[in-house]
Amino acid sequence: MKDQSKVIAALLIGAAAGAAIGLLLAPESGSELREDIADYVNDLFDKAKNQAQTTVDDIKQYSSNVVDKAKNKFSDIVGDATDLRDQAVDAAQGKVNDAKDAVKSTANEWNSSIQQS
Q: Which residues form a coiled coil (predicted)?
């Protein structure tokens, strides 16, 4: 037990001596150390703020790109629908013209047959 007490006492004396030497040899005073810590924390805060702003800008750019792509896709769909409508109108007009021609032809044939009778 005596040996253990001597070891513990030696450890405590060594720790106290180390702490005292560390304080005596520290290159900065307490106020300078506090200023350095404050500067470091402010730098970290500024970096975090800049990173957050960069992230916000990236999100804005990404959302703008998504909106542009959606607008282009919608415009393409509207263009395709307009083309299909035009084709349907042209086909319907062609059918109407064919029907008119058929009616005129039949009417002319009847007229000719009536006049010949």
A: none
* d(C-alpha 114, C-alpha 4), whole Å: 141
Question: Would the pTM of this model clear 0.70, i.e. be above it?
Answer: no
Neighbours of 15 (CB within 10 A): 10
pLDDT in tens, 66-114: 999 999 999 999 999 999 999 999 999 999 999 888 888 888 888 888 8
By three-state DSSP, how is residue 93 classified? Answer: helix
Domain boundaries, the chain: 2-116
32 to each of 18, 19, 25, 41, 42, how far by Cα in Å?
Answer: 22, 19, 14, 14, 15
Query: Do residues 39 and 31 make contact, with C-beta atoms less than 8 angstroms apart?
Result: no
Cα–Cα distance between 13 and 3 in angstroms, integer? Answer: 15
CA 73: distance to chain centroid? Answer: 18
